[in-house]
Amino acid sequence: xxxxxxxxxxxxxxxxxxxxxxxxDAFVHAAPREPLxxxxxxxxxxxxxxxxxDYNEARGVWNANPPTVHTAQLTGAYGxxxxxxxxxxxxxxxxxxxVVIDAAPALGKTTxxxxxxxxxxxxxxxxxxxxxxxxxQRLPVAYLPLSAGTTLKGLNLKLLRFYGHPAAxxxxxxxxxxxxxxxxxxxxxxxxxxxxxxxxxxKHRNGQEVSNHLKGLANEMPVTFLYVGVxxxxxxxxxxxxxxxxxxxxxxxxxxxxxxVAPFTITTTPGARAWTSLLAALEQHxxxxxxxxxxxxxxxxxxxxxxxxxxxxxxxxxxxxxxLAIATGAETITADxxxxxxxxxAAQTLASVS
Length: 354
Hints:
This protein has helices at residues 3-11, 21-29, 41-45, 49-63, 72-85, 109-128, 152-163, 173-186, 205-220, 251-255, 269-285, 300-307, 311-327, 335-340, 345-353, and strands at residues 98-103, 141-145, 191-195, 224-230, 256-260. By secondary structure, the chain is α/β, with parallel strands linked by helices.
């Protein structure tokens, strides 16, 4: 077996199912990928066809998985979450606050939430160990991605399935909530991340039931909820679907702190500097034979026009640009290559009218 095939076996893309404790635990404790060496054109020319194919595949995996860059958006969001997490130190008879990461698509909301939660999970395990005093597995964090049409029962089922509770599929609706509370308390969970909250229609009866249930869980569980979703403010999450004067009395608006995430801008000097710094960090990660300093930063304006400063669109663009650079033999990123990349529909549409 050539070394590139061996590297691929050891470092292939990982398919975490974060909605289960096994998948979440694997994500939390995953080791970083082994470094992959960069070969010159001359070295690649001496390879056999299969070895070169494996090397290029290995580079594709490497290029598509850059490290998390500590952007101003991520740092700012961490600062808000850290402040809210101060209430996580309260005794269990006192209510904790909640965080709502609320922004448009492709701005890194889920990345912010999962990376923060992963860091928190690791800290608690380091301090307190992998098991509770009663011998249960300690799970400092639970992660629940919602789906369209989530109901009160569906929410409880997702929570029980995360913990792998054997009664998840046969308990009655009335029993599910109590079992969920037991799981959280037994595993001493301190943070529950609920992703894709925008799938809930808070103006509908089912959505209002879920909203009320979440408030009830916050009363019963000594945890901090970290909600993630698209335009939750506009979907009346904070108002709990209430209208007029009633909205002013919504408990969620008092209990939850909104954390917004903005796209990168290059219209100001600090914004342009932050965008260039992000490109420079990503540039250092890419493995192309003719890569050079400035390969991305020299095209900062073009990259911003094509992605509108959305980090999700940017990473998709760079994945595809690297693929084209390898497939065509260009082995570097140029303006022509960037213009030839097919990007996501929203970015493409907005770029065409800018």
